[in-house]
Design goal:
Blueprint lengths: L3 H20 L6 H21 L12 H15 L14 H24 L4 H27 L4
Helix pairs in contact: 1-3, 1-5, 2-5, 3-4, 3-5, 4-5
């Protein structure tokens, strides 16, 4: 049996690789990601300074990056090893969570925007930035757990 700590370390390395793939748009280059991202971050900071909501209410926004981080870590941990004999497919519950996580992300993100009256512009921009990462983590993780790479 393999060392569980080594398996978790491998999952974190895979997650970092997923982030790298996201930041280079799968090979298009970092310029295609960083220019829009930095512009979005600037607008996000401006919206932060203009929001008039109690800062403690903004903690609900933690749920958005938490969701794509969990999806990415699941994809890294349950990467389907089709070279192993016998093949080791991912558990069905992981495939379900990875495939349908984005469907839970959308209503949760919209609910946070509605909940944060007074900071809706900030929450909307934050939601859009996290939507990109959720989409990329969902795609990469679903390819990893199913073994069907584009």
């Amino acid at each position: 049996m393999a060392d569980p700590m080594a398996h978790m370390t491998s999952a974190v390395r895979t997650f970092v690789w997923f982030l790298w793939q996201s930041s280079t748009l799968g090979g298009l280059g970092p310029l295609f990601f960083w220019v829009p991202f930095l512009l979005s971050a600037g607008v996000l900071f401006d919206a932060w300074t203009k929001s008039d909501v109690a800062r403690k209410r903004l903690c609900v926004l933690i749920s958005l990056p938490a969701m794509w981080i969990i999806i990415g870590l699941l994809g890294g941990y349950y990467w389907g090893n089709w070279q192993h004999i016998p093949a080791q497919p991912s558990p069905p519950w992981v495939k379900f969570v990875v495939a349908y996580g984005i469907m839970a992300f959308l209503p949760i993100g919209l609910a946070t925007i509605v909940y944060l009256k007074g900071a809706r512009l900030f929450a909307s921009i934050y939601f859009l930035i996290n939507s990109y990462f959720m989409l990329s983590m969902s795609l990469l993780s679903s390819m990893a757990v199913t073994g069907d790479w584009l």
